[in-house]
Design a protein that fits this description.
The protein has 426 residues and is α/β, with parallel strands linked by helices. The protein contains 13 helices and 21 strands. Helix 7 crosses helix 8. The structure holds NADP nicotinamide-adenine-dinucleotide phosphate. Keywords: Oxidoreductase.
Length: 426
């Protein structure tokens, strides 16, 4: 392309890489040669000493020079050594005002929560165009937090979803409910003081940054803790029922993993769409799933999904990692399977290969076999708000932990104890 040239840049997480630099009198953007981190981007150190922050998401990232940096990278010296915020402040004479400090749960390396996460005081994040600074009131805990915290399965590092050797950003947490503190240029429809919920970067902290298109006004009938339980699990459930499953009134829907974060929403959303719902979970959580409105509940320790000859129009697969053959046996001849996910413990693919095989096999059979990649967007949050405010959906919250006990909250979820959602209050 005329007017462009390739520049070799240094990414502290990735090593040397190539980027296309769109030349101009004062270059505003470069296009990075790899996907940006979902969790908030990474700094590219130019040979000339300029820095840039990836602000895009997935695909080809647009990189804006001079955009805010995350703490790890702001504190990373040219020689690669990471210094403390205090050390940087002494060197630069900046950042000492109490007003810009905040408490956050930080991590600098991959591992389990209790090994790598700690409460620390770090700089409050800064916002750029289209972004919103939130005073966090509560943050939801979900499986995605664990994946980004451990960098597992490795596939996530390979596809650029997270850093190769270490996390790109220090603060985890995506589900958020809080008050708008400040808005960046180009943000319309949100003002300081608004109570919102949605998806942010670094919600396990007193302040977090979100893009405005991932936030919506908090449902009027929910507390901040309840609202923070909704976004990712609720959006996933809605999109699985409405888009993947295309659930119609009167259809029979099987929800495998009905007692978890996604499943507890899926049961309620499927009921709201008029379905006859059968949930699958462990014995200890049967009562919970029934209380959410499931017509039948199968305890997976004693019953199989296809045991009783029952066939379902739609199967939502959220836990247990059954084979495609097994899942298809529970479907009607033209039924729809939606694979949302499951945890296999596999360090390389984490069972993701099954999700990829489903749409391939789907070409050769009458059933429709799909996988879901959820979309975090404000308009679907508004759909959830309607369902919540009309009392058709209510978040099922098991435990609420204080910010300082975030590692224990993650452990509780990962060990399989949670009945529904786990939330951190800030
Ligand atoms: N595709 C996407 O966009 C997307 C979005 C969000 C999440 N996910 C993935 O979806 C999965 C579930 O997420 P989540 O937040 O709901 O997790 P979660 O809260 O930990 O729930 C896991 C569920 O799986 C159930 N389960 C475990 N073993 C089972 C078995 N053998 N048979 C049937 N059910 C079983 C659990 O039931 P019991 O607790 O009763 O044993 C629980 O209901 C994760 O792998 C997550 O990464 C994908």
């Amino acid at each position: 392309m005329a007017g462009t040239r390739f520049a070799t840049v240094w990414d502290p997480d990735e090593g040397w890489m190539t980027a296309t630099w769109f030349q101009g009198p004062a270059p505003d953007f470069i296009a990075a040669s790899r996907p940006a981190s979902r969790a908030g981007g990474s700094i590219l150190h130019f040979l000339g000493g300029q820095t840039a922050d990836v602000v895009g998401e997935r695909a080809v990232a647009q990189t804006k020079i001079g955009a805010p940096q995350n703490d790890r990278h702001r504190n990373q010296r040219r020689d690669g050594r990471v210094i403390s915020t205090e050390e940087r402040n002494r060197a630069t004479g900046h950042g000492t005002a109490e007003a810009v400090a905040m408490k956050a749960i930080v991590q600098d390396s991959y591992g389990e929560a209790e090994d790598v996460m700690r409460l620390a005081e770090i700089d409050r994040p800064e916002i750029g165009e289209g972004e919103v600074l939130l005073r966090v009131r509560a943050a939801g805990v979900d499986r995605g937090v664990w994946h980004l915290m451990t960098g597992l399965p490795y596939l996530l590092r390979v596809i650029g979803y997270c850093g190769v050797r270490a996390p790109r950003t220090r603060v985890r947490g995506s589900d958020v409910a809080g008050r708008v503190e400040a808005v960046g240029a180009d943000v319309t429809g949100l003002r300081p003081g608004d109570e919102v919920y949605g998806v942010a970067d670094g919600a396990f902290a007193e302040y977090a940054v979100a893009t405005a298109d991932k936030l919506a006004p908090k449902p009027r009938n929910l507390s901040a803790e309840q609202a923070a339980a909704v976004p990712i699990s609720g959006l996933t459930a809605l999109q699985a029922v409405r888009d993947g499953g295309q659930v119609q009134p009167g259809q029979k829907v099987l929800i495998i993993g009905a007692s978890g974060g996604v499943g507890t929403f899926a049961v309620q959303v499927a009921r709201a769409y008029g379905a006859h719902v059968t949930g699958v979970c462990s014995r200890a959580k049967v009562d919970l799933v029934r209380s959410l409105g499931a017509d039948n509940v199968i305890d997976y320790a004693v019953g199989d999904i296809a045991d009783d000859g029952q066939r379902y129009d739609v199967v939502l697969d959220i836990g247990g990692h059954r084979s495609l053959t097994h899942l298809r046996r529970a479907l009607t001849a033209t039924g729809r399977l939606v694979i949302i996910g499951s945890e296999t413990g596999g360090r390389w693919l984490g069972g993701f290969d099954r999700s990829l095989r489903a749409p391939l096999l789907s070409r050769f059979v009458r059933q429709t076999l799909t996988m879901l990649a959820n979309s975090e967007n404000a308009s679907d949050l508004m759909v959830l708000t309607d369902l919540i405010e009309s009392d058709e959906v209510t978040p099922a919250i098991d435990r609420i932990y204080p910010l300082s006990e975030t590692p224990a909250a993650i452990r509780y979820l990962i060990d399989g104890h949670a009945q529904g959602k786990v939330v951190v209050t800030v």
